[in-house]
Structures are given as C-alpha cells and as structure tokens.
Amino acid sequence: xxxxxxxxxxxxxxxxxxxxxxxxxxxxxxxxxxxxxxxxxxxxxxxxxxxxxxxxxxxxxxxxxxxxxxxxxxxxxxxxxxxxxxxx
Length: 88
Prior knowledge:
Number of helices: 3
Largest sheet: none
Oligomer: single chain
Number of strands: 0
Mean pLDDT: 83
Helix content: over 70%
Radius of gyration: 21 Å
Low-confidence stretches: none
C-alpha cells in the first residue's frame, strides 16, 4: 500500500489543489494511516501538514474575497439613493 501512496503523493502539486481535492486526499490518508508502519506514518505526516496548510490558504483567500466583496457592496449601496435609510 505504501508504494501506491508514494506514487500518488510524490507527484501531487499540493500548492494548486482545489479545496475538494485537498479534503479527498486528507480523507484517503486518514483511512490509510491505521494500516501503515510507524516509519511510513512519519513520512506521510509531512504530506498531511502540507494539505492542511493548503486548506488554511484556501480558507484565508475565501475570507479575504468575502470581506472585499462586502466592503465594495457597502460602498456601492451607501452611494445609491435608497428609500431605506442607512444604519451606518
């Protein structure tokens, strides 16, 4: 099994994986870990850390984009003549 994991994760471009793929790889590793030898677990922990780091990067980008979107929409809505008074 470790040969298969090696072939999957040695050619994996973690930096460019989309969110869903990162989750799928993490789930696959979680299922495979109980059957691994200790020395193999150590090797794949670094891959798990890189996958978790990628999740954090994706989530941070989503938060930043959402915050920017909300700020831009607030500016647009505050500049419009609206019958509803602003609560700012």
